[in-house]
Amino acid sequence: MSSISTTGSVPARAPTVIPAGWLERANSFFQLPLNMRTRAVVVVAAVLLGAAVLLPLWHMTLYSNQYTDGLNLYIYTHKLEGGAVQGDRDDLKEINTLNHYIGMHPLESQDFHEFTWMPLALGILVLLALRAVVLGRMSNLVDVTVAMAWFGVFSMWSFYSKLYTYGHNLDADAPVKVAAFTPPVLGSKQLANFTVFNYPALGSYVILAALVLLAAGILLSARRRTEV
Question: Does domain 44-227 correspond to CATH entry 1.10.10?
Answer without folding.
Answer: no
